[in-house]
Structure formats: C-alpha cells, structure tokens
Amino acid sequence: MSGLLIAVVGVCASGKTTLADALRARGYNARQVGQEHSYVPDMWRRITRPDLLIYLDAGLETIRRRRQDPEWPASLLAVQRARLRHARHHCDLYVKTDDLTPEEVLAQSLTWLREHS
Fold this sequence. Notes:
By secondary structure, the protein is an alpha/beta fold. The protein contains six helices and four strands.
C-alpha cells in the first residue's frame, strides 16, 4: 500500500498537513494538496495523479478555533467548499475532523487504508 500515492485535500485547518506528515512517517506516499486555494476544479488530480484521495472537512467554529481567529469568514469556507466540490465527489475517504484529534484522524485513515488495500 505504501507505494500508492495518497492525496489529502480539505478546507483550511482540517488537518491536511498533519495527516499527510503522519502517513509519510508510517511509510505511506502521501501528499497534501492545496485544492481549496485553486479555481481549477480537478487540480488535485492534475498535480498529484493520486491512487487514493482523502478529503478532510471541518466546520466554521472548528476552523476559527484551530486558526485562533474568531473572525475567520464564513464566506471563505463557502468558497473553499465550492472549490473542493470535485474532490469531495471523487474522494475515496471522507473524514469530518471537528470532533477528532489528529491521532484519531490518523487512526481512522489507517484503518480505512488497511481495509481497502
């Protein structure tokens, strides 16, 4: 499984970098993709050409707390979700991270990867 390329996408502060780093530390070929910043709907696919796509999501209050920015705009979250629509539709694993620790997100991802290898 570690030879497969895993792309991780999601809204800001959903845990993309943390998850990709943790997967790489365990021997997986994982890459965080900044799809939420691109107007190209399938940039995640064009740049990485992944074998598997993990989508991380988080709600507005979670993002504000994680970014330590109580004014982080809801409109930006709406824009990011629109930019991520294609990735969300094509993801292999969707994880809502609001109530999960980074370790729990990793555990859920690893379980899914083991079950689908």
